[in-house]
Design a protein that fits this description.
The chain has 3 helices and no strands. It is an all-alpha fold. It has one domain. It has helices at residues 2-20, 29-50, 59-80. Helix 1 (2-20) packs across helix 2 (29-50), helix 1 packs across helix 3 and helix 2 crosses helix 3. It is globular. Helices cover 78% and strands 0% of the residues.
Amino acid sequence: MGWLITILVGFIVGVLAKFLHPGKDNLGFIMTTILGIAGAALAGFVGQSVGWYQVGEPAGWIASTIFAIIILAVYTRVIKK
């Protein structure tokens, strides 16, 4: 059940990141989900290490979306070159 929730949260975060990031991204369903999972994992690691928030706090959603946008921006810059 944990994997299903991880995939669902990753998809939601990925869709939010794609919606908030300007420009055209040609990412499909699977890449959007992977983007969200990567953003959530990176935000969880950084946010909890620095002490910004604990597991289950709403700040995790915000940080996950911000980190997913950062990953998406880097991805689009690398792909364009």
